[in-house]
Design a protein that fits this description.
The complex is a heterodimer of chains A (320) and B (295).
Chain A lengths: L1 H11 L8 H10 L1 H24 L5 E2 L10 E2 L3 H8 L3 H31 L4 H12 L6 H12 L4 H8 L11 H29 L3 H9 L4 H26 L7 H6 L5 H4 L2 H11 L3 H28 L7
Antiparallel strand pairs in A: 1-2
Chain B lengths: L5 H32 L3 H6 L12 H7 L2 H33 L5 H13 L4 H10 L17 H13 L2 H9 L4 H12 L1 H16 L3 H6 L8 H10 L8 H12 L4 H35 L3
Helix pairs in contact in B: 1-14, 3-14, 4-7, 4-10, 4-12, 8-9, 10-14, 12-14
Classes of the chains: A mainly alpha (320), B mainly alpha (295).
GO cellular component, one term (chain B): plasma membrane
Organism (chain B): Paenibacillus rhizovicinus
Subcellular location (chain B): Cell membrane
Amino acid sequence: MSSVIEETVSRSVPVSLKRPSKSLLSRMWHMRFIYLLLLPGIAYFVIYKYVPMVGIMIAFQDYSAFTGIWHSDWVGFAHFKEIFDDPDIVQILFNTLYLSLLQLLFAFPVGIALALMLNELRNHAYKRTIQSIVYLPHFVSWIVVIGLVNTFLSEKGIVNSMLGLLHLPQSNLLTSPGWFMPLLLLEGIWKETGWGTIIFLAALSGINNELYEAGVVDGASRMRLMWHVTLPALRGTIALLLILQLGHVLDTGIEQIMLMINALTKDVGTTLDYYVYVKGILNADFSFSAAFGLFKSLIGLILILGANKLTKKFGEEGAF
Amino acid sequence: MHFRTRGELVVDRLNVALLFVIAALMIFPFFYMLVVSFTSYREYMNTDLLLWPKTWVLDSYRYIFSSKQFMQSIGNTVWITVIGTVIDLAMTSTMAYGLSRQVPGRKYINFMVLLTFLFSGGMIPTYLVVKATGLIDTSWALILPGAISAFNLLIMRQFFMGIPNELTEAAIIDGASEMKVYTHIILPLSKPVLAAFGLFCAVGHWNTFFDAILYLNNPDKWTIQVILRQIVVLSDTASSLKPTLMAQQVRDQHLPPPETIGMAAILVATVPILFVYPFLQKHFAKGVMLGAVKG
């Protein structure tokens, strides 16, 4: 308790009367074991989070592994200019935004719909069983998902078998550019939608039952209850998740794409994240790639702060 | 709960039926993978729509279990999962405990953690740091750079702060050291959070793929997901030379076809997750709820 009291006291006294630093030091000495416990974590954040932030300066250099970060030549914004001169940039930006838009338009509402459907189930054993099943795909890796998709879509796979039985022309969707993004979307929906319902269901379970009872007394139908009680209760959660989504419009992840992409879908499938990997790691073009990554992070930062401000304007709570 | 009209009953039943179909679509790929993995070469090649093998054979399993590389990757992955999870939990919980106490300077440390939500060095600078710290081609590259998730850290700190302060203070008055408070009071009271996060971390390590691609060049160190990629993805893409080689091999030696081998490999790599899943389920709803209660 003493430290709490000390803190309130030290906060309430004017700055000039603040305790001398000796007592701060003695307080710190008193809690030296806490610092010991904090040390590994702080070291972790410094080494693996903050040193890379400093390392971003290679974006302004012609970094070479031989000369190292301290002796490479400074080139200013040359790599950023290179980004805008890159003939592929428009296509890559388009691919990235297109995939994000597809996810926002389809995956996001599907998650809400699934949560609402689960919420309407009256039989608890049935509800729990369905939930266990729809959560499951979240726990398997992307390789497993794509491996399954590859087998489904292979020459002898179930999709072509079905098409054959229906006397429809068979095709290889894996190498078809038009199917690349829809496949990514469907895989994402299969893997993550069920898991995404958890947060909505948590919000729904917090609704006061009296609201429903009052609605029933007033003669509201189930649909009206959903519209006037259930959905408004989800507004805050939906807004919060939308901000997070908008802030990550440029993040498409790498694993799924690098596993799906091939020579024939390279043009329609390359997104910003994947391009950073190809340029930086595969082609060892560290400086250009770091510049590209920084460019992406900065836009992402602006997007997330902007989206947060926007939701606050609409009267919702926002993420921060 | 309340009186239902006939229309509502119809909607109810439709809802139940539709959810059944959705759940079936979610579970079907797992079933299909099981079926294909146990199908014989001849049957796989000759059946148009395979939904249940006439004879169940173990050829594909024999093939993958006799592969030294496959078994070695499983060993690597088990090691990374066990050590990685222990390190994740130890580092996250000690830091979370430290930040939950009224220690001078904690605001700066909190801010340092929060800032990483908004901005990060990105893939390339992080890669260079991992390289500079000498972790390339070691399993530590898959453990240390991701040891603490800032999000989990803050949730855990929130949980620790919910433990009544009187408990800690009383223990300290009774002469317990901070270390003792952490190990004898905080940790035992936090078993549900530790279980939930531990299981999330373990699944994460088991499924590690991109980091392994990025940081490991030595095939002896590869994890199961990287080997799976070799088996199920690279053997299928049009751009790779592998399929022709592999198809040739299959014809020559009558090995199981790549698809059945792939399905068997995927099944073996997924079994541990399916195995912990019932246990996992008890805890994860709680873990996610903790996250949902904004801290």
